[in-house]
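Standup notes
- HV: blocked on the assembly model, inputs below
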Amino acid sequence: MTLQVYNSYSRQKEVFEPITPGLVGMYVCGPTVSGESHLGHARPYITFDVVYRYLQHLGYKVRYVRNITDAGHFEEEGREAVDKISTKAVLEKLEPMELVTKYTNLFRWAMKQFNNLEPSIEPTATGHIVEQIEMIKTIMTEGYAYEANGSVYFDVKKYAANYPYGKLSGRVMDDMLETTRDLDGQEEKRNKADFALWKAAPPNHIMRWASPWGEGFPGWHIECSAMSSKYLGSEFDIHGGGMDLQFPHHESEIAQSTICHHGKLMARYWLHNNMITINGKKMGKSYNNVIKLTELFSGNHPMLEKAYHPMTIRFAILQTQYRSTFDFSNEALQAAERGLKRLWEAYEALGKLMEPETAQPAADAELDGRVRKLMAEFDAFMNDDFNTAKVLANMFELVPIINGLKDKHVPMSDLGPGTLGLLQQKMALWLETIFGLKMATEADNALFGGVMELLIGLRKEARSKKDFATSDRIRNGLGALGIQLKDEKDGGVSWGV
RNA sequence: GGUACCGUGGCCGAGUGAUUAGGCAGAGCUCUGCAAAAGCUCGUACAGCGGUUUGAAUCCGCUCGGUACCUCCA
């Protein structure tokens, strides 16, 4: 059973084989920190966090590089070249670096809320200007870039004559060149399809660095080529990012890196997550339909009926295969919230179950077999291009069995020796280690737990005296505080927030 | 306009030739002082029209509808 991934480059599922056995290099395009992260950003970083975790689970030593884009891009190519970050900085009267730091910190905070592991390296574009300039120089030396008025452009037409430009994004070069004719304001470029490697900075531009071509700033795509090869080598295993980055960003990265590394394809496997949509439309600044992560967590947005816990979002994203769109709605998130609660409560109950002392063959061999099969399929589903949705579906099939064991509808003896232990181990592994789900509970707090024990004891006493007025007062009072008491079948009481 | 992709029960979503996906919501029942939770049972869906096939949500064609990329974008 081997891992298969859908490679956007070949448009098919392929067996995953790292270039160096045992080691995996993975580069994922990070955020542009010129503004606050929104729900759309949650998808790639949760998706690739699970990929990262799963690869490690498979025993690979993974170097996970995710950049922070903190140097400006062009607002709208074809019009005036505007550095996105410097424009915003003027509006907010902030230093560019101050702005970038603010949003970088906010981004990292959000990643922590989602319980995403930190990447091995999180390089910034501004920290790698030297490497980018070096790379541009190499491309010029190789004859695939030209200078015009202090800017440097990549010669796409020349590149396309020798290499398959457009293969990743399924673009036909001739079509792209044809649109050249009726385009204006692009005098500097030889062809419309050319893209900037270096942009001369206009006088009022705040972010600027000295270069062989004068003061300016790097083009959008060069940072990822420079940083990925610096930390992962000229050929590495996985390159990930959102589907919207396929063109032009990833296509251009490939072109730059191919020239610098003499024809080597920079990454073997190109993984692209699909978009999060809202009312069927991609969430994005240009659509004016973004929900920022801070708004999502606080519920402070006209479109939101309530606040959503980061784990609810993580769970909802994992319930969808990463290559499908996920259509956001309050209903969808609330469904995820309840589903996660049920799953997690079963998981916690599972941890408290004990296997019988004496090992006996399964009294219900069919059930025992089903439990084992459902668990075994976790790996198979995940190996099929990270189908987290199917793994979760299987977990939900285990929930009634676990709850049955807890309530003693299902006698423990129905399961064969070792099955319960395996189930406990597998659920912990998958839910927490691989899927990265984590539920902070007040039960972890010893002091609070003690207080709860006391209240539950008092209520129990009242109930035994049929003093339901008091028992209901305790339960309702706690309920008003958001703590729910549940009377269990065996006379015990459980509670949750 | 070009290039891809998608259209699954009230909602979200798996699924690429024959299986009940799964979740949420809804209905009934059981347990229970009541409640909540839990358990059991219930929906036979796959845009439309043709075709291929013993058999199609799944393959092919057409129609309709939608989305994404072609410009910054996760």
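- HV (later): unblocked. Chain A has three domains: 16-273, 293-434, 442-496. Residues 74-81, 180-185 of chain A have pLDDT under 50 and may be disordered.
- Next: hand off to the docking folks.
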